[in-house]
Amino acid sequence: MNMKTKVSIKSTLLLMTMVFPGTALLAQDGESSIPFTISGSVDAYFRSNLNSTNDTENGGDLAPATSFANLPGFSLGMANIVGSIEGEKVGFVTDFVFGPRGDEAVFGSVDPSGDPSNRAIVNQLYTYLNVGEHLTFTLGNFNTFLGYEVISPTGNFNYSTSYMFSYGPFSHTGLKADLSFDNGFSFMAGIFNPTDATDFNPSGSYVGGVQLGYEGGAGGTWVNFLFEDGFYQLDLTTGYDITEKVYLGLNSTTASDSFWGVAGYVQTSLTESFGLGIRGEYFTDKGLGVLTEDESVIDVTISGNYTVGGLTIIPEFRLDAFSEDDVVMTDGLKGETANSLSSFLLAAVYAF
């Protein structure tokens, strides 16, 4: 099962394939021909509160304060189209997103005037150079190396996302070097624009990033560190196949004067086409402002994954229990409140 693998799905010369159907697109890398590949996904969902009204005129439209899967009723996720040429020495990836989930993912894309940019469909855009067998330099915009969950719904077992993922970084624009070793260890160091400032650097300050990882046959462990003047985030991500059918994952993170949390992930394959997964997360607001300061929340999410070809159907039940009372409006007309929010969603994710 997938860990925090960088979301790589494929497309830029897409228009060429439309104009010249049936034409193989090849790039030259030395003496070899490298195909241009296209892949991606489409997702949509239905979401409803179980203990709170969904009537927006009467205190409804409540949702967990996390990213993406938080719209009421029948709702759209995104269309994700990625194109790439991945050669032995050089290559590139372009990753385009369209729809509400995509808008949230690339919220940092702006033009110099501060207005939303027409470039705000670019989730990733980078090129790389392999220097020998173990060293790779990457320049451009790429999804973050921190955390367990990713932007693309095809990379997560649960459809809704965790608090730690939602308030950590989504993307970085900059230069990084990845060094791998034959014994399974890896090291990454990079310098980036301010977090989620994807198009350009608006402030002149920079962020540093470091990752130390180990990956074996059954899984891996990554220690991630992001830092700048007056701020840091330290993150641990790990996951292993315990048996052929059972997988355990763990993510823990702390951000200075902001938040900290821990989440465990258990996933099991019940049949060839159906799996069941549980995420349990504890998250504390230490000045972020999403909750009140020092308020905490426990998120328990149970998700099924039923796969038919490229389509995955995800029924999901989620409970968010808050440490403070009366934070959830259960009935705006009567003024009734609670300290938890339960919700159900049904998502469909098609990957190609």
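the 2nd protein, sequnce then structure:
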Amino acid sequence: MKNWLRKHPEVRTIRVAAADLNGQPRGKRIPARFAERVVSDGTRFPLSVLNLDIWGEDIEDSPLVFDHGDADGVLKPTERGFVPMPWLEAPTALLPIWMFRESGVPFEGDPRHVLRAVVDRYKARGLTPVVAMELEFYLIDDSGKTLQVPPSPRSGKRRKAAEALSIRALDAFDTFFTDLYDACEAMDIPADTSTSETGLGQFEVNLMHCDDALRAADDAWLFKMLVKGLARRHGFAASFMAKPYPDYSGNGLHTHFSLLDQFGNNVLSNGGPEGSAVMHQAVAGCLAAMHDCTLIFAPHLNSYDRLVPEAHAPNAVCWAYENRTSAIRIPSGSTAARRIEHRVSGGDVNPYLMLAAILGSALMGIEDEMTPPPPITGNAYALDLPQLPLTWDEAIDTFEQSPIVRRLFHPELIRNYVLTKRQEQRYIAELSPEEQVEVYLDTV
């Protein structure tokens, strides 16, 4: 890490940042000449900083604040090391960090440590998750009273309709996407295909599969920061909020995963189209935890505007082969590359918590040798199926009371997350719909 700074003398300042429970980067700005001290010794800030609400306010009844004297944690660099921040004008680098207690024990309220604990359980079974993510976002002109698609830098015109898989829509923002891919290259984010989606100014970028789940979550976290920051440099906003426009599709964050054994074999494949017994167990685990973990996949009030029937987002607990109306989809293609696609999450999630919930529930299914219900056929929206929570309030209650959630997450994480969401509930209820959109547009 120290060599990286020596190779980049143009970098004058650095940011050190960790992800809080909402996925917001929390940290400090430090002159580059003092950066080596952070690399060697880490830095410090209160444990409570990773447990702030969406506005960045303390959680009023959190025991992390006054009950424990608002004690410090020790934050150390992750294995990612420095990455450039191409959305800023001055040459700047970001050093991702994660939190430990004074004793050196990982802080259970740090989302990255939550995912690490799940990955460690897979390693103990000789398994390695391979993860890929698809992130949807909107480009938005938010300079007026109402949100609208930005004018094309090429033509100066605003496209007033959704253009699914439109090359013209991509070309209209070619300068932005060229800069985005150049920045992903510089930050070592494996951005692959981009497409125009079904919303007004909506796009999707796929991140390539990765056999390091922590790195995959890092990539998603960094990518969201990059897209939002770079859009502002181009004179508009980019938003991953679940439902910026009531009449258009919401933003999803679909996650694909397979599992490799110690010899590199995909244990979800049996050579046939149906998949292995392990795949069925993993599917069963994901389905068993899906309802109770909805708060992770839909963490904000606006998230529930996306999870409605016939809106290109699942609202029922089910699985299927090659069926995008289902919550769990088994894609077709090479049987050797058999994988599971989890389609519930919105773009507004914390990628560390989301991936911990998905992989943790799949592992629960494997450990318990669970059997899934039969896969559905046809339109999931038209079938009588178990439903996800319909409201934010229901999702919070379910998450707090669930024995499955207690199996997947540390008690401190559950307590902190529920306290955070309860406080956000109280405050967001005081805002108008327009003010609520303003809260979520840039933050999530």
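The mean pLDDT is 95. The longest strand covers residues 128-140.
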